[in-house]
Write a structure and sequence with these properties.
The complex is a heterodimer of chains A (509) and B (259). Chain A has 509 residues and is an alpha+beta fold. Chain A has 17 helices and 14 strands. Chain A has two domains: 116 residues, Beta Polymerase, domain 2 (2-Layer Sandwich), CATH 3.30.460; 280 residues, Cytochrome-c3 Hydrogenase, chain B (Orthogonal Bundle), CATH 1.10.645.10. In chain A, the strands form four sheets. In chain A, strands 1, 3, 4, 5 and 6 form a five-stranded mixed beta sheet that branches. Chain A is globular. Chain A starts with a strand and ends with a helix. Chain B folds into two domains: 68 residues; 137 residues, Rossmann fold, CATH 3.40.50. Chain B is globular, with a radius of gyration of 19 Å. Chain B starts with a helix and ends in a 12-residue tail after the last helix. Classes of the chains: A alpha+beta (509), B alpha/beta (259). At the A-B interface, helix 4, helix 7 and helix 8 of A face helix 1, strand 6, helix 5 and helix 6 of B.
């Protein structure tokens, strides 16, 4: 067997149970599998292990709902170059770039051997933010436009380099790393489990619930414990509330960029209402502090549940009015339609995930393909998929998802109504001291509002967290943005960018 | 085509908060903690041991808001010693002002600590250039929200501008990553004197969870004086609005306000 076969609801995997292939076997098998659309790589990372490097790969089989775990290894100081998988399957590029940048591993035939995020512990200290090797083109009619790292708005930093022919973009290259804070190193540097959970919440502040859920799911697997059903429901509810808030915010941001002021202000107000609902539940507008390992500090009460239910119904009603107005405004549609197209096949090749992939007709949704918690039982999630892959498709995706999430929240609250009214739902307090299985790997695989989010946690012989490797969906999807603006006018870049709304800090870690 | 717009407008109604100074946040909100000393310090010591950023010290008993993530864990471990109130008036003109001790009823804001030119030049209007240097997007979104239809901070002439050349000062969010340190410095240099410097959020005030990270370079704050420290994870828009209005002399902070 080349793989240890598991799924998103099974427990932790012992490191000794993970097959260790030769790189040749690994390469051949993955090269063949990734040609089939049912497979994509959720995570591929290297860990120093004594005098060796061990490379772990989590391969998702969407058709069977399975997670295939495998690994290969080499001597730490071995200096042979590995044949690059990126050359065959571009979706491998962020993973191979990460491994090369951190440890100096060379990938032979890598078509895009560039730095990824300039981590503080990078192998080559000469490589720095100032000498990022931008792609260049020669030609009298071409010019370059550099934007960033500081952007015009109040957003995170990143550098964009456009090569333009007049107004038309020929190529966009995105250089990131400005946000690198050393998150992964901080996970391993502490035994304070609360600190680790707080770290997961800050991987990407607009996805605090998503990342904290991914991390605490991995912890629960390592602890060999399961969450009570009502707690699973409340955690899912928080995830869907976060999705609503951010999809509404993005609807407003896109409206702003095309001068559709009514949509902008209406969405601003609706987002305020959504995050204030979250705040009234747990005291924080971004739900920091709500997701905790094996328990909760903010159990729902009957009053809070009815407050959330009332607010969400009102938000959905008003948002639907905005959606209706947006669709009946031809001047708005003219800006969004046929703009920033990423065809389905390109999206598949670069390994696009989440809402951006679904807007291009690629069904990538962990809630449906690898369901966990009540997505598997109560909700039976059916992903929304659009075909056109343009800004409009990504916007309509959001519109539909807000209403879908509102429906889920209503169903979850209806299901817990009886329990809460009886006051019988006593949920456990968080457990920060649960012993973890030693020498094991567990992953939290969660569909956040942006897409597939994965935390791979590896423990050492004493059950300490030796490494937490984080993958934000932005890691895959930044390339989609670069492709979307090709041959568009440079003035359409802002709406293309907003239509993806990717995370800089989630990418840079 | 006009009918859907009228529907949206009718539902939208009037959104702006009429009086920003009268805002009271939900009782769930974790703002300024209230500290009470007890003879038995065992619970307090346990709470200090789990504090994710070392903001809480048991001996002497003090809580540094500039390092606090407002996760609320200490209040659960030592409920007799620490209670979080919903008071969002926690901005301070000095870093030391963020350190709370037992019996403190408010975060002090001494007008004498404010450079006089700030009120002279910027009382009527203050336009800031925001620089995110490792922030996780939550503080940035809250800063953006200060100008939205609900808070509408623009009514007092306060807002954000794209070019540092047009700005009266810089608002920094995030722990200041090494990879962003140079860009922040260049941006700050580009703002004409006199200028203000504002640290937004706990990560900017102290580095937060990344205070000890090797990927962070906080020497910027050793070279430049911060005029306003605004803690929070993320910093709520009302913390920013109250802090700026107090800094500019629109309002005063007196003790004690409310429980």
């Amino acid at each position: 067997m080349n793989y240890f076969v598991t799924d998103n609801t099974s427990g932790a995997v012992r490191l000794s149970d993970i097959p260790e292939l030769s790189y040749g076997e690994f390469y051949d098998d993955l090269a063949a599998k990734l040609s089939d659309e049912r497979y994509h790589v959720a995570h591929y990372f290297a860990l120093p292990d004594d005098r060796r490097m061990r490379f772990f790969c989590l391969l998702l089989d969407d058709a069977a709902g399975q997670v295939l775990v495998t690994s290969h290894a080499m001597e730490y100081y071995e200096d042979t170059a590995l044949p690059s998988l990126t050359a065959l399957h571009p979706q491998m590029h962020p993973f191979e770039r990460d491994i090369a940048e951190r440890y100096g591993i060379r990938f032979d035939g890598m078509p895009w051997p560039k730095p990824l995020r300039f981590p503080f512990d990078r192998y080559d200290r000469r490589s720095s933010m100032d000498n990022y090797p931008f792609y260049t083109m020669e030609g009298g009619s071409l010019h370059e436009v550099n934007v960033g790292p500081i952007h015009a708005g109040v957003i995170e930093p990143g550098a964009f380099r456009f090569i333009c022919n007049g107004e038309q973009v020929l190529h966009l290259e995105i250089a990131l790393g400005y946000q690198h804070r050393g998150v992964e190193a901080a996970f391993a540097a502490t035994d304070n489990r609360l600190r680790q959970v707080c770290l997961s919440e800050t991987v990407a502040g607009d996805s605090a619930v998503t990342h904290a859920t991914a991390f605490t799911e991995a912890l629960a697997k390592l602890a060999g414990r399961a969450y009570p059903e009502q707690l699973v429901r409340e955690r899912t509810l928080a995830l869907e509330l976060e999705r609503m808030a951010m999809q509404i915010a993005d609807t407003g941001a896109l409206s702003m960029d095309v001068g559709y002021q009514l949509g902008q202000v209406a969405c601003e107000a609706l987002r305020t209402m959504t995050i204030n609902t979250t705040q009234a539940w747990c005291g924080n507008r971004f739900a920091k502090g709500l997701i905790r390992p094996l328990g909760t500090d903010h159990p729902l009460t009957a009053e809070k549940a009815s407050m959330i239910r009332r607010n969400v119904a009102e938000i959905a009603r008003r948002y639907d009015e905005v959606r209706h107005d947006l669709k009946s405004s031809p001047t708005v549609l003219a800006r969004f339609e046929q703009c920033g197209i990423v065809p389905r096949d390109e999206m598949r090749r670069i390994g696009g995930v989440g809402q951006a992939a679904r807007a291009s007709g690629l069904q990538r949704d962990i809630r449906a393909s690898h369901p966990w918690g009540i997505y598997a039982s109560e909700l039976r999630h059916e992903p929304i998929v659009k075909r056109h892959g343009d800004v409009m498709a990504r916007l309509m995706m959001r519109c539909r998802e807000v209403l879908q999430s509102a429906g889920y929240i209503d169903r979850m609250l209806a299901a817990s109504e009886e329990l809460l009214a009886g006051g019988s739902a006593v949920l456990p307090a968080p457990d920060y001291a649960a012993p973890l299985a030693p020498d094991s790997l567990a992953f939290g695989l969660v569909e956040g509002w942006r897409g597939e989010t994965c935390h791979a946690v590896v423990t050492d012989a004493e059950g300490r967290i030796a490494a937490c490797r984080v993958k934000d969906p932005s890691l895959h999807n930044w390339m989609a943005l670069a492709l979307a603006v090709r041959s568009e006018g440079i003035s359409d870049f802002p709406i293309c960018n907003k239509s993806f709304n990717l995370s800089y800090c989630g990418h840079d870690l | 085509m006009i009918l859907p717009k009228i529907r949206v407008l009718c539902s939208h109604g009037r959104q702006a908060i009429p009086d920003l100074d009268a805002v009271e946040l939900t009782s769930e909100f974790r703002g300024r903690p209230s500290l009470t000393a007890t003879d038995d310090t065992s619970a307090l010591r346990e709470a200090a041991a789990v504090c994710p950023t070392g903001a809480l010290s048991a001996e002497p008993f003090a809580l540094d808001l500039g390092r606090c993530l407002f996760c609320g864990e200490c209040a659960r471990r030592a409920p007799r010693n620490i209670r979080f109130t919903n008071d969002y008036r926690i901005g301070s003109p000095t870093r030391e002002g963020l350190i709370l001790r037992p019996g403190d009823t408010h975060v002090p804001f001494d007008p004498a600590s404010v450079r006089p030119e700030i009120r002279r030049y910027f009382r009527q209007a203050l336009q800031l250039r925001e620089v995110c240097a490792g922030g996780d997007a939550s503080v940035e979104m809250e800063l953006g929200a200060t100008g939205n239809v609900n808070f509408d901070f623009g009514r007092f002439g306060v807002g954000f501008t794209a070019s540092p050349r047009h700005a009266d000062g810089v608002a920094v969010s995030g722990p200041v990553t090494a990879n962003m340190a140079e860009a922040l410095e260049i941006c700050y240099d580009a703002v004409a004197e006199p200028k203000v410097l504002i640290a937004c959020g706990t990560e900017a005030c102290s580095g937060g969870l990344f205070a000890e990270s090797r990927a962070v370079d906080r020497t910027f704050f050793e070279r430049h004086r911060v005029d306003l420290w605004l803690p929070g994870a993320p910093m709520h828009p009302m913390i920013f609005i109250d802090g700026i209005r107090t800094l500019l002399g629109h309002k005063e902070r007196t003790a004690p306000q409310r429980k």
